[in-house]
Amino acid sequence: GRMSSPDIATRLLLATDEAMGDEARGLAQQLNDENLRRQQEEADLVGQAKKAIETDPAVGAHNGLVVGGEGWHRGVIGIAASKLVDQYHKPAIVLSIDAHVDRWKRALPENGLYAPMAYLLDLPAKRVRPVLVMMGCELFGGKAEDVLDEALGIELFHNFSLMHDDIMDEAPLRRGRATVHAKWNTNTAILSGDAMLVKAYQLMGKRADVLELFSRYALEVCEGQQFDMDYEQRQDVHIDEYVEMIRLKTAVLLSCALQVGAAIAGASVEEREHIGAYGEHLGLAFQLRDDLLD
Description:
The protein is mostly helical and 294 residues long.
């Protein structure tokens, strides 16, 4: 199969011996062909992005762009680049958690309690939270494969919360497909969500320190959801109250994910707290942007 550019460059460095001249020339040609192919793909995507914005100004507005406006060309390049990353550069760490999720789903019993879990996990997802568990572990010298179960546990908890949130919000769709309570019924969604939470705890309970972290932040997520429901009945929600609500509802689970990975890798309490603070601020930024787009 085709080698990546870094692989080819490495081989070129090694192919300095005169006896390997033919291989070096061949690798150089392959590298050149690869770069030309990528440049053409980027050019095509830039053209597609520009055409989309010209055809539908709402696309440009969503990305802060107007035709001919300041930053127009840079913005089009940015949209195209993000598409290219999504299309061609799905990180290996995401592929590994996707594979672990698939193995877990295939092992589920075939009955009405577990089918909604598999259905929800099949919806398109970035796997941000499990990836953060694995990244937190690697950052402190651990191996990503050593925290796959805990990464899955965080993802199960997140999806449990989505299943119940959709009931509370009476939402008919989740990521473009029917929500669990709409596809089955509310009672099934409640019970399957409860079972999903149990499954998450089974995965997170191998170590006392991890279980303590997870339990603390899982409860805070529930507190944030309660604030969210309370504020729907009020017209005087202060910005500080809103920030605390999204911190609890969204940001603390990202903090938890990084801290769990760090703890398993052997990070100190101080190191865990630092990486946890980073995760919390990352979650706040994510939710602020998401709410603005809504």
